[in-house]
# Entry
Amino acid sequence: MALKYSRQRELIKDFLCSRKDHPTADVVYTNVRQQFPNISLGTVYRNLTLLSDMGEIQRLHLGDGVDHFDADISAHNHFVCRQCGCVMDLDMESIDHITETAAKNFPGKVDGHITYFYGICGNCCSKQ
# Structure
């Protein structure tokens, strides 16, 4: 079954594509509302879930109690600042070998991994 076109869903995805900071649903809602004032928070949540389930965006669970969203669905790692909470892509060499390392002594099948790096971002370091 083909998915019906939705202007709200298109605006949400366009907004995410314009960002590199991995916003929460509340940030998406606040910004999309400026272009589409009648959109509800529930509509934003439903569309973010749908886009994530369809593999068109990534949903990030970073341990801060809220989901963050990323339009970049390529395999990449993220850095989370423990001080200000910013989330950013981490430009680095591949660490895909850790999947093989994890599988060596595991009796099941390891398909992949999700890795988040935590620390203090450059902006917070410069303020100290």
